Amino acid sequence: MNTPRQIADTARPRLPRGVRLAHNEAQGGWVLLAPERVFKADAVTAEILKRCTGQASLAQIVDDLAKAFTAPRDRIRSDVANLLGSLADKKLLELD
Amino acid sequence: MPPHDAAIPAPLGLLAELTHRCPLGCPYCSNPLALDKRDLELDADTWGRVFREAAALGVMQVHLSGGEPAARRDLADIVRHARDAGLYSNLITSAVGLTAETLAKLAEAGLDHVQISIQDSDERSADRIAGYDGAFGRKRALAAEVVRLGLPLTVNVVVHRANIERIAPMVELALALGASRVEVAHVQYYGWALKNRAALMPAREQVEQALREVERLRSEHHGRIVIDAVVPDYYARYPKPCVGGWGRRSLNVTPAGKVLPCHAAEVIPGLEFWNVRERGLADIWRSSPAFTAFRGTDWMMAPCKTCERRAQDFGGCRCQAFLIAGDARAADPVCHLSPHHGLVEQAVLARQDQPYRYRRL
User: Fold this and answer.
1) Is B88 on the interface with A (CB under 8 A)?
2) Per residue in B180-197, pLDDT tens?
3) Which ipTM score applies to this complex?
4) What is d(CA B224, CA B217) in angstroms, rounded to the nearest whole number?
């Protein structure tokens, strides 16, 4: 049943129609707006989701984040893939 | 209290009841028994102002509801106002009376999401529950149109005794219609639903079976469709944190412009509601007597007052406390700790097959 999904380096993640990342001071920062649901997004999640435009591949997103946060690439790849996989399971992200 | 400004949280969601008009007659409708007339409805520009004021307060999502919102000819203007205010807009529709042409206009005006209610997976039963011949077929057709336009779709199935044994086919219908999300919504007993409670109430074994079924379906359809469901509160041990806490996360504006902490709040006698025709939304949210009445925990009586869950479920639902226990400050009687819990157990036992009293204007 619920095995973690594998995400290819070439996948181009994007937020589907009906899911939006938005910033709102009154709600304390970044939130992900989805059908009848609202999720708080921490700063790191927001940095990842801002790059999920459907243009950049997973490999490019990870490269970019490794540069921006001067952190080990392997660790970033695994964190990003976990996040994207769990969002995709909740229908909050498309991977194609 | 009255709470200080810093103690007043920012609302996140606005339920905009655009009209009470609706072609369906569902016996579980949560609208009040006394419905607002058409000539009292707020116009689209006033809704626009309400949306801008809501966004300034922190609201991010607006749920366009009713009645049937498509009964309003100016629905596309209202959707455009929501988009211009920067709100995420969600249309809650029966799909009856909403044409493909209007839907396309709404999509163009910036609508973000559509929720369609389905009464059953069995056509004849669905139409009987809705009190409207042909409703089921229209819902299927409009759902297809939503998906064709690329809008995300939620199917809402309202569950009660007549359909509780068909959770699986209803979820499968939602999948077949192309929904990315399905809400398994057990009837809540307010408004017309309370009138029909004996006819709608399922048995405990049916509820337990339904909960197991939802778990099984979640696992089976993991990653394909999101299934949101809650335990029906008459059968729960603790009450639901109604509207996320009174005057805390959401607000409701009636067709005629009254601002309520929840859609059923008008049943509570003595509450004074302010109207958006006369005051700004921020003022209403902060200071109107209806909102300050049960905000926070200072209003509570025993056993809520000292309960360790008081900041978690906020004593449950104020309307239900009034409707069942006769006092809006009492613990929600569905809670097993409530001194009035026996009345809930009696209501559960009083279930019996009888004709529905359909909602009519």
Assistant:
1) yes
2) 999 999 999 999 999 999
3) 0.90
4) 11
